UniProtKB/TrEMBL annotation:
Species assigned in the record: Pseudomonas lini
Entry keyword annotation includes Ribosomal protein: yes
GO terms for cellular component: ribosome
InterPro entries with a match to the protein in the record: Acyl_CoA_acyltransferase, GNAT_dom
UniProt name for this protein: GNAT family N-acetyltransferase
Keyword Ribosomal protein: yes
Domain N-acetyltransferase: residue ranges: 5-134
Molecular function via GO: acyltransferase activity, transferring groups other than amino-acyl groups
Length: 134
């Protein structure tokens, strides 16, 4: 039996569970303290949480002006549910239906370029970045 996945916005009551999920899936270096992560979520205009059988199986967030530009960040799917459409559902939820927005992301993890290219992303030759200062 294939259990459906529910994708919805992150609620304030979800924040600590999401932070723990990210830590369990190799993203602890990006979550920080409870307070830091709560602020990270609060400052994200778009969030997506994937739930299957009452447990978190995926998360993504986006930062956008809602009109022209958006940045897709922290697309994370647990290993047991990869290749089941969870990542696609998260990305589509965050991006929404405004096709006028240009979405950017960093695809540095193994397999990320292939995954995002299937969703219509292309490698850019004009993007620049300034890495965070340590």
């Amino acid at each position: 039996m294939n259990i459906p996945v529910l994708v919805r916005d992150v609620r304030p009551s979800d924040v600590e569970s999401v932070r723990l999920f990210l830590g369990e899936n190799g993203w602890a270096h990006r979550t920080g303290s409870v307070e830091h992560f709560a602020q990270l979520i609060a400052n994200s205009q778009r969030t997506a949480l994937a739930i299957k059988d009452s447990r978190i199986v995926g998360f993504a967030r986006g930062i956008t002006d809602g009109l022209s530009n958006g940045y897709l960040s922290m697309v994370v799917v647990c290993g047991q549910t990869r290749r089941e459409g969870v990542g696609r559902a998260l990305v589509e939820h965050v991006m929404g239906d405004n096709t006028a927005i240009t979405w950017l992301l960093r695809a540095g993890r193994e397999g990320a370029s292939d995954f995002f290219s299937k969703l219509g992303f292309e490698t850019s030759t004009i993007a620049m970045e300034r890495s965070r200062l340590k």
